[in-house]
Specification:
With about 350 residues, the protein is an alpha/beta fold. It is built from ten helices and 14 strands. The strands form two sheets. The protein has a seven-stranded parallel β-sheet with strand order 3-2-1-4-5-7-6, sandwiched between helices. Helix 5 links the parallel strand 6 and strand 7.
């Protein structure tokens, strides 16, 4: 399987020596700041010691306005989307725009010397056929784009001009699956099943019939069966076929994925633990829980991914991977990637 390479952990990018001077600030703008992930970005960046939040825009020509929820956190004004203004006011732009808008804007900003972290799906898929199916409104991926699953792409992210932030479901799935695939522990040809459940905020801020309170409350529903674009993203990052089924939970945030794989009979939970320890021993934002299976409430409002596992003697494995979809699955991981790009402590603004 062609899994993502794991560079050696860069402690320098994640650790500021005791007594060191605080890093100089970098001008950062948020494009698309009015949605759930955009507002999370403003909350994180407004208190980030290594950046100055210089601008925040809507996703289009919306009139300038304030965000009451950010009063006394960030007193700026949301302005209409304007590429020229972003170039004047920022060194880095973090984008939480719709796919087509991101596909149009990100390369233009990069060509004008800015660095970009993009939270849309516009640049995540490399395969042309998959892009044509799932993102037909976007363009070809420009050269040099890095898929920013931070723990498995740190060296590439550090020098990238444009980082494609992973989707929420793929983040949880790939952090659990990639170490096993790299260790060649997964049984060839065996099904990999990702049974995923997400809070309603994963559907975005625009309300639909499916996300209406009366439809979601006291219910649990599957959707996008054999028809969700994150399936292609998981398969591309994992390097093999995956059966992925998402479900809608009646909670506001959080993802829990139950992942079923097969390993050689006799493989123990301790053996899996050794593999995960080698992959994540130096990673602040991946917490390994082993046989003590994690829950959504353990990671809500944090940038952590918690991974637990159980194994039976026949080689069946159940992995549980949980994240906050708005943080580790979106805005938090974007800030983590931004920190790597700036060469500062990876935890800044997140802990």
């Amino acid at each position: 399987m062609n899994t993502m390479a794991t560079p050696a952990p860069s402690r320098q990018s994640r650790k500021i020596p005791d007594g060191a001077a605080p890093p100089s600030t970098t001008r950062v703008a948020v494009a698309g700041a009015t949605g759930f992930t955009g507002q999370e970005l403003l909350r994180l960046l407004s208190r980030h010691p290594a950046v100055t939040l210089t601008a925040a825009t809507s996703s289009g020509a919306t009139a300038a306005r304030k965000l009451p929820a950010l009063t006394r956190l960030w007193e700026g004004t949301i302005t209409p989307l304007d590429a020229d203004a972003l170039v004047r006011e920022a060194d880095v732009v973090v984008m939480a725009l719709p796919d087509q808008a991101a596909a149009d804007l990100a390369p233009r900003l990069a060509d004008r010397g800015l660095r970009v972290v993009d939270l849309s799906g516009a640049f995540r898929l490399r395969d042309a056929a998959a892009r044509a199916r799932w993102y037909p409104e976007t363009h070809a991926v420009p050269p040099g784009v890095v898929y920013g699953l931070t723990e498995h792409a740190r060296a590439a992210v550090s020098g990238a001009r444009l980082v494609a932030n992973p989707g929420c479901y793929p983040t949880a799935a790939l952090l659990a699956l990639v170490p096993l695939a790299q260790a060649k522990l997964l049984s060839p040809g065996a099904d990999v099943i990702v049974d995923a459940k997400s809070g309603v905020s994963g559907a975005g801020k625009t309300a639909t019939e499916r996300t209406h309170f009366s439809e979601v409350h006291d219910s649990l529903s599957a959707y996008g069966v054999f028809g969700h674009r994150h399936n292609a993203e998981i398969e591309e990052g994992f390097g093999g076929p995956v059966t992925f089924t998402p479900h809608l939970l009646p909670i506001d945030r959080g993802i829990l994925e139950t992942i079923y794989v097969r390993v050689p009979p006799g493989t123990t939970e301790e053996h899996l633990g050794d593999i995960y320890e080698r992959a994540y021993a130096n990673e602040t934002f991946v917490r390994l829980t082993g046989a003590s299976l994690p829950e959504i409430k353990h990671v809500a409002h944090t940038n952590f991914c918690d991974i637990g596992w159980r194994v039976d003697p026949s080689g069946r494995v159940v992995l549980i991977s949980v994240i906050d979809n708005l943080l580790k699955g979106a805005s938090g991981q974007a800030v983590q990637n931004l920190n790597v790009m700036l060469g500062v402590d990876e935890r800044l603004g997140l802990l």
